[in-house]
């Protein structure tokens, strides 16, 4: 992240420019409808390794999902000067914390950093992941479409 902050500083880019760029990006086709249906089906929390300041421009487009993520440290002039990481392994730790207070968890993700929470959950899925991850973790069901993932989630809730 220090390397990225250095590049931003070298080019005179701060949070304002980053958020303006992110605001131009639309959610992936089907993502909004999927999240709406998921929230209507079960309690939903998005655990992400992004930063709230990056996600903020996207939240209205996604109908304001509950998002647990990290934060950036921003100077008064808008320069990104640091990061406030919640905790190493925060996705897995969050799943474990939810389970410790009686919640069953269903998790899905696309990356190596999602595997801990996926494996610790009552049911876990890979979604639009790499071929290598699918090959390395064939025991985890993998899906490419929102419809197929939603069907698997609903089945897991039975």
How would you portray this structure in words?
Helix content is 43%, strand content 19%. By secondary structure, the protein is of the alpha/beta class. A 3-stranded mixed sheet has the order 1-2-3. Strands 4-5-6 form a 3-stranded parallel sheet. Strand 4, helix 6 (115-120) and strand 5 (123-127) form a beta-alpha-beta unit. The longest helix is centred in the last third of the chain and has 12 residues, at 146-157. It contains 8 helices and 6 strands. It has 2 domains: 1-86, thrh gene product, domain 2; 104-158, Rossmann fold (3-Layer(aba) Sandwich), CATH 3.40.50.
Q: How big is the Rg? A: 17 Å
Stretches with pLDDT under 50, minimum 5 residues: none
Number of domains: 2
**Widest sheet: strand ordering:** 1-2-3
The counted number of beta strands is: 6
- Judging from the principal axes of the Cα atoms, what is the shape? globular
Regarding CATH, which class of the largest domain?
Answer: Alpha Beta
The SSE string, one letter per element, is HHHEHEEHEHEHEH
CATH topology of the largest domain: thrh gene product, domain 2
Average residue pLDDT: 96
CATH architecture label name of the largest domain: Alpha-Beta Complex
Structural class: alpha/beta
| Number of discrete helical segments | 8
Percentage of residues in strands: 15-25%
Termini separation? 42 Å
Helical fraction equals: 40-55%
Largest β-sheet summary: 3 strands, mixed
Tell me the CATH superfamily of the largest domain: thrh gene product, domain 2
């Amino acid at each position: 992240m220090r390397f990225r902050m250095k590049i931003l500083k070298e080019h005179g880019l701060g949070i304002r420019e980053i958020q303006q760029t992110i605001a131009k990006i639309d959610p992936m086709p089907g993502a909004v409808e999927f999240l709406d249906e998921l929230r209507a089906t079960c309690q939903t929390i998005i655990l992400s390794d992004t930063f709230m300041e990056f996600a903020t421009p996207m939240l209205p487009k996604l109908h304001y999902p509950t998002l647990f993520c990290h934060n950036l440290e921003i100077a008064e002039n808008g320069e990104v000067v640091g990061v406030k990481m919640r905790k190493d392994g925060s996705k897995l730790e969050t799943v474990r914390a939810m389970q410790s207070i009686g919640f069953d968890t269903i998790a899905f993700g696309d990356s190596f950093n999602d595997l801990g929470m996926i494996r610790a959950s009552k049911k876990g899925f890979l979604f639009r992941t790499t071929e290598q991850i699918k090959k390395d973790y064939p025991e985890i069901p993998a899906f490419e479409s929102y419809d197929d993932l939603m069907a698997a989630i609903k089945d897991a809730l039975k």
